[in-house]
Amino acid sequence: MSVDEMQPPFRIGIDIGGTFTDIVVVGAAGRLLAHKAPSTPEDRTIGVLDAIAGAARALGRDTETLLRDTDLLVHGSTVATNTLLEGKGARVGLLTTEGFRDTLEIRRGLRREVWDHRTPFPPPLVPRRLRLGIGERIGAAGEVLKPLDRESVVRAVEMLRAGGVEAIAICFLNSFRNPAHEQACRAVIQEIWPEIWISCSSDIAPIMGEYERSASVVANAYVGPRVAPYLRALEARLSGLGLRRPLLIVQSNGGALNVAEVAHQPVQMVLSGPAAGVGAIRYFGRDTGSSDLVSIEVGGTSCDVTLMRDGVVQMTDQLDVEGHCIAIPSVEIHTIGAGGGTVGHVDAGGMLQAGPHGAGARPGPAAYGLGGTQPTVTDAQLVLGRLAPGPYAGGALSLDRDKAVRAIEQHLAGPLGLTVEQAAAGLIRLVEQNIQHAVERVSIERGYDIRDFTLIAAGGAGPLHGAAVGRALGCAAVYVPRLAGVFCAFGMCNTDVRLDRVRSWYHRLDDEQPDLLEAAFREMEEQASAALARQGFAREAIRLERGLALRYPGQQWPVSIPSEEGLAVDVLRRGFEAAHQRLYGHFQPNGEIEALGLKVAARGHLPMAAPTLVDAEIQSWPEPLGRRPVWINDALGTVSTPIHDGRRLAPGDAVLGPAIIDEATTTLLVEGGQRLRVTAAGNYLIEPAQKDGAA
After folding, report:
1. Torsion sign (Cα): 468, 471, 474, 478
2. Which of 22, 309, 529, 669 is the most buried (most CB within 10 A)?
3. Among 72-76, 93-97, 289-293, the range of highest mean pLDDT
4. CATH number, domain containing residue 565
5. What angle do CA 287, 290, 292 make, to 5 degrees?
6. Are 330 and 273 in contact (CB under 8 A)?
7. CB 132, CB 96: distance < 8 Å
8. 209 is in which domain, residue-wise?
9. Domain boundary pick from 227, 242, 258
């Protein structure tokens, strides 16, 4: 790409992954640059600045000039997630209604595996000695049954101060109906200990469910003192280097928000990074020609699976992060430990296993030559000829095949009594089976027919698995963006600013008049719109979406439905019954329905780059640049495979499998009998063999 083609103003997306920090720079005319830099877990700010500096050099600029000419910089980071996973958060004290200090530890009593009664729950983020009861009580209707006892707050704070806490979480009974006592408690704490971090459940998760609110506010307090300083320091550093606009941070809901807002509720960043894939899915959806998409974003350490049905990305109201419940609006992403850095090993029973541990950025796979000795999926791809030795990830690294062979021979092939190629192929098959099950989790188990969906294979490692996973699932087609290796970073350049508001609303649906619902929704919309207006969005740039959480009486989990078609009871009933039928295979005709909550999503719309479309009718079958032995699958084994340079393929070109396509940020495998064609926007669509009479 010519540097002259990239003209300001720029928009930049930066995604920190386990192995690489990805950056995408989009110019005013839609031209773009993708770049990768190794992640720096010891100080993630370094990786961000290295990525920006590398992109600036590729554009013939320095960092300061690039940032001065940038109108939008969106960042996604795993810092909140890693803080939870690694147990490196703040020491938190929890203030609860007297008599309810054990809610956090009792949980709901539900287990991931219903027959597993022995595996213990992870320890709560707040030990019992730091969970203290406060004299107060709010009734179920929001009435004050017992006034807040100020002295009990003062005594509790002194105990927490002596216990060395760094943050205080407040969760009082029924505060979702009346937050007055939580607010008063916060005021007392600020008066006697002004520097302590404080988080109230009525701000973080104002919903019914004492455990969910307790767990969510504790998680927010746990990550807050670690995440907020990082965000503020990064924004200050970027501002000092020339960035004139506020830094935006991707939230779990797939939208972005400025640092000042996110810093108060950093738990909203738990899925920051992966959730940015929503912007990329919506962008590429126009090129696929389908509104039913499921994406696998396979990076260095994990595979994130996201589903879009009828143009709407599936959302959830509750996340589970290693056993910790977080009740926030989030993109529904199913994540498994399956990436290029996933380590293969032989267990005590002599069985081959893949993950869940990964090699990370350093030392990384054995082939990186950075000190890693354990065999990974990347090593297996190199041994099987799917990856070529030499420069990798745009030249950021170099792959050493001999080191990969030694790692697989020592740790897999030898213990299993297999050849190196057989062991490598077994590791690949196992990882692809895990990815297949992850896709089934968000599709078939949710009542969707996966055969109606196009599979988007993204991430640096995803396009090597997409053809096999799509075939095994029976997907309509497999779509691979040229920007697969920087999928989430590109999605950040196509995201909106988003705010979510939720409110508990416990009534029988048949008893609710539409005008009461309308009034409640209008109040929530006005609050959300005002918050976006403070960030500079005009009324016409704000888009509002409504939703309700409904259930049958006694049902454990509510069903969320949109309300675009109106609030009439019969309309809401039809929507609920259709959703219930899809999820559970049945519904109760004319059954009693309860409303548990209202939801409003407010989007501050940012212009999205539109793909340039040209005639994509098949016009040529380009000759490969060369061939090399590549293991394709069990049916074909290792065959002499054509190797194509993706930079030379244009709309109208087609390739018959088996074939390898080398791209700047990824490598694509086409299986035997499949046909790949370059789409109108210059991306890749792999069609099953039966769709091509020539195959």
Report:
1. positive
2. 22
3. 93-97
4. 3.30.1490
5. 130
6. no
7. yes
8. 87-227
9. 227
